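Many introductory courses stop at the sequence. We go one step further.
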Amino acid sequence: MIKHYFIAAGAAIMTLSAALASAQNAAVDQQLVQRGEYLAKAGDCVACHTAKGGKPFAGGLAIDTPVGRVYSSNITPDKDNGIGSYSEEDFDRALRHGIRKDGASLYPAMPYPSYAKVKPADVKALYAYFMNGVKAEPTPNRGVDIVWPLSMRWPLSIWRKVFAPAVAVDGVADNSPLLRGQYLVEGLGHCGACHTPRGVGMQEKALTDDSTQYLSGGVIDGFLANNLRGDARDGLGNWTEADIVAFLKTGRNSHSAAFGGMADVVAESTQHMTDEDLSAMAKYLKSLKPFKEGTPALAYDDKTHQALRKGSDQSPGAMAFLNNCAACHRSSGKGYDETFPTLALSPTVNAENPASLIRIVLQGAEMPWTHKAPTQFAMPGFASRLSDQEVADVVTFIRSSWGNQASAVSASDVAKVRKQVPEKKTVEAGGIPLAKQ
């Protein structure tokens, strides 16, 4: 009788232990999913894998490349159209190696050369999130718009072997802010994918700070992705770590405001990151040496401000600025902090490549909405109001005033950018198109 009692008690204890272990595993798994969700936001996965008006992570976003247009894939856990049938190994091979489950190489529009730096422990968390924290969507994947023979994928395997780095391994964690920031910027943040210039093979010229080419500026979607190195003229040399954190958290600071693709990065990714991680990223970015050593910093010059106030500057550029820009950016060129960006000494204004400034004048821009800065300010486009020559005049004026020292812009420069700006229809209340911008 006593023997049976102990057997029953032992079985009960084992059952209770198993239940507790199961509950603990469930809790651990949920923590892993939550960790993966945070990492997916840090990697800005939703921005590229969600088409305009589409379901989150269901793919279909058009991405223009030098050889044609590709479309992001469905990465929801749908088994037929998404990655629901992917094992963790399959997921890792796609994320960090650029190889699909069927063995085909991915186009490097997927920034797997950067994701190669993601550690296996974080890959595991990402996999847990996409399999358990994302809603499955049956949206079919869309084929590429690339003509044959450029559409053949086998050359991509050669590209991958030549340009993709070896993947990271787990090791002893060094949680120093500088190394944490480097890990986030070079890896999940894949900042170099936009902010590093490309070579003849369309590869990033550097994947880490072993070359001053890394984060020295690139062009994406017709906008200049600014120099993020320590250059005082067109980089982050005059920004403090707090300035960088504010920009990544709110999309604005006293130096600039996010525009183009960076506005999406702030809205979908960096505003959701912890202050600790943003500070680490800022610390790493501030550690980068200038791309061009010895370039002197710019100093504010009040002559333009006074000339505009007195009306002594009657040049076409000055008049165009007064008629179209001064109300928001002020005759001082200093704008209004965190509302209308400063033009004086701005890295965007002083960039060697004027593409962003021209495109903003033509197309307009809108600050991202963020939790810390919910007011969304926008600048209208002037494509329908100003000719190529008038845009060239005002941009040249801006780039040479208030201490700015950037080269002049020609009407032909503007014409090239205008061709890339999408037309917008102005529609009245009844739905009848009135004009195109």
